[in-house]
User: Fold these one by one.
Assistant:
Number 1:
Amino acid sequence: MTTATPAWAEVMSTALVGTDRTGPPTWVPPTAADPASGLLEVAALLAVSRRAGGLPDRDVARPARAPDEARPMVGAAAGNRLTRLLGGNVFDADARSELTREWLSLAAGRGLVAPPQSLPALLEAGRASRELRSLVAVAGGNRARWLAEQRPSWGYLLEEADDPDEVDLTEEFDEPYDAATRPAAAAVAWDETRWQEGSAGTRAALLARARRGDPDAARDHLVAAWSKEPAANRERFIATLGIGLGPGDEVFLEKALDDRAKGVRQQAVRLLARLSGSAYQERMAQRARAAVRLDGSGGLIIEPPAEVDPAMVRDGLSADPGNGAGYGKRAWWLEALVAATPLSTWLDYAPDPTTFLLHRPDADGWAENLVRGLARAAARERDVEWARQLLASPSAKALLRPSYGTRPAEGLYELLPPAELSEHARDLLTDDNASQQVYQLLMMCPAPWPADLGTAVLDRVVVLITRERQGYRADSLCQLAARKLSPSAAADVAARAAALRDDEAQYTYERAIERLAEILHFRQKMIEELA
């Protein structure tokens, strides 16, 4: 007899491919109807069986008891709030997801773990959302990891780091390396047992911590294990070289350009583009100089490559960028070349390359991609002055156009100090032609928003509802404000919602601001319970 779980997987696989191509599984009983109908009948029975559960297998040894927790559990009120979020009893799915993320972040940051009764639902939430997994691993504690060992569908958790400090280490691997301020190499302990036996997340965090102390020694550990690691681990581990990236990493990264796994090659390209003085940077600069040339009289000739050769493909230029690029091949290649070229290259063109390159009426239709490439280079080099000049250039709107899901403007705005970023957003709030741009800006402004920015957003929401009758835009702003406003603004938002309710002439989208008040109040209580 086939057990329910493997049977379900086999039925689902057959249903996806189609019985006309594979036929039903051999154990599905024949019916008078066609094979597809028979498969659906079995699927219906298995669905009920899965919901009902099953008898335990008597031949399987009982697992060891779950280990005790090393950290204290949250209080009853906080646990009940998590249960409400996971049970789907409050707000909509998007709001619940954001609130669950905040709950887990707060709990992990305070060294607390979720109550045992919430763990199955919490593990299911992590299964459905990759973005929650590292937080589930920490806030779930030892018992969540024990449960993950018992159920294959929760096995994802075993690949996550379960130490709060390690989770922080895995979030961002692009850090400058300063030999003068790094800790002494002897002070950075290498845990060989965790390296050999830990999860992929734990091992990546171990590498990251070691890179902060002795980058060369950490890389040597990685090189020694490299050939035995699966592609997913290689991609994850090579990213840690972004910490303390230096000349000693170049040989290894150049070899990684020939790796079988696309993700590894992409990481190698990203890191080599950041490595000052690398052969990779020089190769890209030579190609960019060939594509963007001076004409001898102070003008500019832009002639992107007509095709890419194998060496260019090895360096990350796709022979066929595809529809996701949003541009034709030559335009995309120009942007990619300029993006990987050091900004210092353009000093050979003019003493003030920003002014020279960003105001080009003679760019022959290539100005937009030239500026986009420069923006990506400025974001990579974290050059704030270039960022300011690019955002003020005539081609700034081109930086908002998405390409493969990203907008160059986002990388530039991230370089600006929070106060400057908030000022940009405030200035654009009333510009109807910049609604998309201001929304992106507001997303990048760190939470909680400054009080004056929060007030400006709420004022704009009221105007959109009462005067401009653009409730859909008000609703979008309210959804964003629910994540970004300080919960202390709950009373002000509630008062504005009450004023709209009292005025019968107001537009029906007043519900958006009421919902915002409810979420802020919910967050306020959540923070108090986890304090």
Number 2:
Amino acid sequence: MAWTVAADGAVFVLDATHTLTQLAPDNLAPLAQGSPLLESAEEAPAYLLAGETQIFVGSAAISETLVLDRSDLGLVARLDHFGPMALVQGQRLFMIPLGLEEMWPTYNFEIWAYDLSDLSKMPYKVRYTGASFTDLVTDSANRRLYVLMSNILASPPHRGQNYDV
């Protein structure tokens, strides 16, 4: 369903049973495995991101993101939304929140940031625009957030995808 490689090279995989497994980076042998995170058998998009101390597992099946302790894969917190994520280690979790159909029926116009020091705080909107966001990644060394976006307001054939900083 999803996989990610942490900055330190650790590999994590979320399988079809919603079980998170850490794999050895050199031979992909299992190193640690958690219990199934979801009871839902529904196949739905999943999003996985590993930081220094936390792992973030977002799923459309439960419409939220689970925050796990990386050392034991135990549940630490739940975030009310899910979607593509990017991380600034030890500082912020960026998310394109999906499932906001009540406000935006078709597109993803917002990017949110969660404060990692206090995940109970409401996220704040980093970007809000007429372009639909698809994916994002951080470049911590250069302090940049790259966002893949679609220009949905343009008429065809000008509706291209581009990266924004």
Number 3:
Amino acid sequence: MFTMLLFAAALHLPANCKPFAGLEKIADSSTRWVILGEQHGTAESPEAFATLVCWLSAQRGVAVALELPVKEQGAIDAYMISDGGSKARAALTSGTIWQSPVQDGRSSEAYVALLERLRELKRSGRQIRVLAISPEWKGSSNQRERDIAALLQANGSEQNVLVMALVGNVHARRATTVAGATFPTYLPAKSARTFDIAPEGGAQWACAMAPGSRTPTCGPRPLESDRLKMSAGVVLEDGASGFDGIVYLGKKSTASPPAVRKD
């Protein structure tokens, strides 16, 4: 607790940032990229991510990278300077990912709440910008990972700016498979940290293909976790798992439905 208080004092922490144990382990002055992996479709992971941004944006500028289509960038930019009202939200969620009949968790109510929290922080004076980093499909998953890495490197070159990305945990892990390497592999290891966000199981909004079906069915599904049950907080690891640490939520997750419901 004493360490957290010192960290809070150093960051001039505003009262509306929720406390989170071990925050000082997320980044230091040499860190340029922080990659956080989640299982899409929960309410709790984007909320925890917003808390981390709240803390770290008190120290320096933050470029928040979200796994949303790059073509949504204009709508996101407009929302970030809007009043956050119903018209602004309708414009934000008018894009394809929000209107698609297949909702994989990246277009959830929790993601709208995350964007609203980021908008509030920016309005309060924080140096925050939001980047949509999911490129158009070019027929190669490895090319997609390289494109994301290039985009993050371009935005991590600015002095006193930390890039914080929230992506699916398959992409957040440093790993090389038959399909190629994940994007954190292409970032300078000494300046990038990767974390897995770990709830204690629970539920998520996800899509699955039923046997014999050509269309995925989306809805609340059990979220399995093989992580140890731990109190909420950040724990560092040796990187052998592909992650530098775990962000334990200390509770079960709940499914976050689409921001735009089609039923």
